[in-house]
Specification:
The complex is a heterodimer of chains A (277) and B (283).
Chain A (H helix, E strand, L loop, with lengths): L4 H27 L4 H6 L9 H14 L2 H32 L5 H10 L6 H13 L6 H26 L2 H9 L4 H12 L1 H17 L2 H6 L8 H10 L6 H21 L1 H8 L6
Helix pairs in contact in A: 1-13, 3-13, 4-7, 4-10, 7-10, 8-9, 10-14, 12-13
Chain B lengths: L1 H25 L17 H7 L2 H32 L6 H13 L2 H11 L6 H8 L11 H30 L3 H8 L4 H30 L2 H6 L11 H11 L3 H26 L8
Helix pairs in contact in B: 1-12, 3-7, 3-9, 3-11, 4-7, 7-9, 8-9, 9-12, 11-12
Classes of the chains: A mainly alpha (277), B mainly alpha (283).
């Protein structure tokens, strides 16, 4: 292949794009390995890694700052909320895709529009509700609101996946005498597994990143979530220790990156849910 | 049918719709953490809102932020989609890299860029200085901080527009372009008369999504600039957060949220009507 100037420029641009996307993350990673004074002293930061310092920074973040237990809390809350949202949202999406009844379009649109609601509009009432039943500082106090936030996402994504399954399939099963319930569990669910993975990813991502409701509901360190940990680090009224802050950022992002590696085939599909047929 | 829809409807009624109505009721009370007992005050919160300069400042900031972000993201996103449509060898790797920002926790994105743009030791300032230019004071002045907020939002979300428009590009029937070329249309005419009109639904969809999400998100601001300096990056969402959480004026925060909801509903309805598109085509 001959290298024309246009092609070279195109490739340079491509590399530049990759750098713009990746360099900030790498920089955050490098900062997290430094001593506090090195951050201001080394510009740009050197790539000579000091393993003892790395261990020290991450030990401080994971143990002294409690991020390890926050990760545990987040994982538990994210896991249970996502499963519940899938259990509640998927059958509804199936109904919206397959059954036409009076007002079905309106009901579907109402549920989907909840996806666009600013969380602050419901955070205070949710907090008052959770408090009034004594669930402040508890996992259910977080899970109950989070399931509600995730359901519209799940319905939104799953309708698209159900719509893609040919109707002939359930019509054939219907003729054989199968009920909607049976069709849903035995025939549809196995087919839309990619959809379940996609909605699980985006439901989980939303909950992992959420900290507004958590700030209201949780004021005990024992139940703090990971994004709350990052938030309190910032709002604390003292200068930020950037090496520690960077390590907190890395610790927050790594589980997301690992999880999305496993489900990478579905990321695009989830992000563009509703946009592309 | 009750089996399938019942739990979903019931759950959302309890934990989404009821809180929304509750919030509306709160917005007519003086409930706060400092001793406001939640007495009915009618429209007082809304009246206060209309004469609160901070509210108008936040409204203006939100408008600037949403308009600027969405415009830049659409132009850049469409451009990038066309670029990736050249299918350079290895470009799928870069496309994969560009997915990462969208998955990142917004508050960490804000924090990360605060480090990158640090005036004393940030990597970006170093890079600008090393080519002999003077870096701006990114988060130091009211206007620059707003521009920085917009740019960071673009860093995170331009790939979203790229993704949607690129997917649409892949799905376009190729014979139309073939025919246009045979008829002697140049690349610019083809883009203006064929590609762009066919991409329009995807562009509008992506733009609407981005506008709503930029409008309602407050966590990027929280991480990047905490609304400052001099409230220059205090958007409505962040303003509502401050009153709802920091100052604990629950009634007032509820009124701000409802102002936001009204703007959202009127705004999206106006856009949809004006553009005559349906966000979700379920035909």
């Amino acid at each position: 292949m001959k290298l024309r100037p246009g092609r070279i420029i195109a490739y340079l641009f491509l590399i530049l794009l990759g750098l713009i996307g990746l360099a900030p993350l790498v920089y955050l990673g490098i900062l997290s390995t430094k001593r506090r004074i090195e951050i201001a002293a080394e510009v740009p930061p050197s790539l000579a890694f000091n393993w003892d310092q790395i261990v020290k920074n991450y030990a401080e973040v994971l143990y002294s700052q409690g991020m390890l237990s926050f990760i545990g809390n987040s994982t538990l809350v994210v896991g249970i909320s996502t499963i519940l949202a899938l259990l509640i949202g998927t059958p509804a999406a199936y109904a919206f895709s397959r059954l036409r009844f009076r007002g079905s379009a309106n009901l579907a649109n109402t549920i989907l529009s909840l996806r666009f609601m600013p969380p602050i509009a419901v955070a205070i009432p949710l907090f008052i509700m959770v408090k009034s039943v004594g669930l402040q500082n508890s996992y259910p106090g977080l899970i109950l609101p989070y399931v509600a936030f995730s359901i519209p996402l799940v319905v939104w994504i799953m309708i698209g996946f159900f719509d893609e399954v040919p109707r002939e399939l359930d019509e054939a099963a219907m003729i054989d005498g199968a009920s909607h319930y049976l069709i849903f569990w035995r025939i549809m669910l196995p087919i839309v597994r990619p959809g379940l993975m996609t909605s699980a990813l985006f439901g989980a991502l939303f909950i992992w990143n959420e900290f507004l409701v958590a700030l209201y509901v949780i004021n005990s360190r024992a139940y703090q979530t990971i994004s709350m940990g990052a938030a309190t680090l910032i709002s604390a009224q003292r200068p930020i220790d950037w090496n520690i802050a960077a390590a907190v950022g890395v610790v927050t992002l790594i589980p997301i990156l690992i999880f999305s590696l496993f489900v990478q085939r579905y990321i695009v599909r989830g992000l563009t849910a509703g946009a592309v047929k | 049918m009750l089996f399938l829809l019942g739990p979903c409807v019931l759950y959302l009624l309890t934990f989404s719709i009821y809180p929304l109505i509750y919030s509306l009721r709160l917005s007519f009370t003086d409930l706060d953490a400092a001793g406001g007992g939640g007495d009915w005050v009618g429209l007082r919160n809304y009246a206060n809102l209309l004469v609160d300069p901070q509210f108008w400042n936040a409204t203006r900031n939100s408008a600037i932020m949403v308009l600027a972000s969405v415009t830049i993201q659409i132009v850049a996103g469409v451009g990038l989609a066309l670029f990736f449509n050249l299918h350079l060898t290895g470009s799928w790797i870069v496309r994969g890299i560009l997915m990462l920002p969208m998955l990142m926790t917004p508050i960490v994105v804000g924090l990360m860029w605060r480090a990158l743009l640090n005036p004393d030791w940030g990597l970006v300032d170093w890079a600008i200085e090393s080519v002999g230019l003077n870096p701006p004071d990114w988060l130091g002045s009211v206007w620059m901080a707003m521009l920085t907020l917009v740019l960071v939002d673009c860093w995170q979300w331009t790939p979203f527009v790229l993704l949607i428009v690129f997917a649409r590009l892949q799905a376009l029937p190729q014979d139309i372009f073939e025919a246009a070329r045979v008829d002697g249309a140049g690349p610019f005419v083809i883009f203006r008369r064929i590609t762009l009109p066919m991409l329009m639904p995807a562009i509008l969809f992506a733009g609407l999504f981005r506008a709503v999400d930029a409008f309602r998100s407050f966590d990027l601001v929280f991480g990047l600039s905490y609304g400052g300096p001099a409230r220059g990056t205090t958007t409505l969402a962040f303003f509502a957060f401050q009153h709802g959480f920091q100052f604990q004026n629950y009634g007032y925060a509820a009124a701000i949220s409802y102002a936001m909801l009204i703007i959202l509903i009127v705004g999206t309805a106006a856009i949809l009507r004006y553009l005559r598109v349906q966000p979700v085509d379920r035909s």
